[in-house]
Design brief:
Layout (H helix, E strand, L loop, with lengths): L3 H14 L6 H9 L8 H9 L10 H19 L5 H5 L21 H22 L15 H4 L8 H7 L23 H10 L8 H13 L3 H15 L1 H6 L2 H9 L6 H13 L2
């Protein structure tokens, strides 16, 4: 059963979110300590904290509709195969020498942009699928706006088809990851911190814990500065182990972070922030 404390926190969020104009500082203060998932509270709070929705409640419905239409427009203009509109208009191909085509080497070619965009999309699709392979949400289309680009029945080349037919060249990222260890081991912060920072710690913890960390990150006005503090806190909490371990042991520690209590990590990060 839900505890009285949790019910009280839900009520606090609901009180803030029902106001005609959202008190952003109050919402940040509440969210920093974790957002309840009941009733779509986290989804709504993240949209406000990330400036996707304005503070004025009256405009939310129209803003959401506008944003989704804008996103669909971006898909039509930037992802759907270039040239399809021209073909539909019945424009004849008189001389392909002077026409933009898939083999056009010009950097200004729309096809050149199209192929580069596809590489990015494929990499995003690949990263999302491997983020949490055991959770079906990451392996399937979401409501918006996937039918436009994933439906195998539509007349355009689909993202699914591109994923199936294209093999991306993956870059090898050095996994030599350590930090505040003795210098003789030559363990450099940029190696282990690269994954922590670029993926917002999403591969270091279980998904519910990642979401809890993101609550605090998104609630902080200087969220990326706080992310650095979270990473520093992670190192400080295993400092003794790092100082005692050799290269191999420390690599294992940093590649498979041993502490699972993210609240302890966030508390240490907040202490670092308050001491600045």
């Amino acid at each position: 059963t839900m505890s009285s404390l949790h019910k009280s926190r839900i009520a606090d969020f609901q009180d803030v979110l029902k106001e005609p104009s959202i008190a952003l500082e109050k919402l940040r203060e509440l969210s920093f300590s974790g957002i309840p998932c009941e009733g779509g509270l986290r989804c709504l709070c993240w949209k406000i904290l990330l400036n996707y929705l304005p503070l004025e409640r009256a405009s939310w419905t129209s803003i959401l509709a506008k944003q989704r239409e804008l996103y669909s427009q971006f898909l039509r203009e930037m992802i759907i195969q270039p040239g399809i509109a021209k073909a539909n208009m019945g424009v004849s191909r008189e001389d392909v020498t002077f026409e933009d085509h898939p083999l056009n080497p010009s950097p200004d070619s729309r096809w050149n942009t199209y192929f580069k965009d596809n590489e990015v999309l494929l990499q995003i699709d690949k990263d999302v699928r491997r983020l949490c392979p055991d959770i079906s949400f990451f392996q399937r289309a979401t409501e918006y706006p996937c039918l436009l680009i994933l439906d195998p029945q539509n007349e355009f080349e689909t993202l699914r088809k591109r994923v199936e037919q294209t093999t991306l060249k993956s870059q090898t990222v050095a996994r030599n990851r350590s930090g505040v260890t003795n210098q003789e081991q030559n363990i450099k912060p940029q190696f282990f911190a690269f994954r922590w920072l670029t993926l917002l710690l999403s591969q270091e913890f279980l998904l519910p814990d990642v979401i809890r960390i993101w609550d605090s990150l998104f609630a902080d006005d200087n969220r990326f500065d706080f992310l650095l503090l979270v990473c520093c806190a992670m190192l400080i909490l295993i400092r003794e182990q790092l100082l005692e371990g050799d290269f191999t042991v420390n690599m294992r520690l940093l590649q498979d972070y041993p502490i699972t209590d993210v609240c302890q990590i966030l508390q240490k990060a907040k202490e670092l922030q308050d001491s600045k």
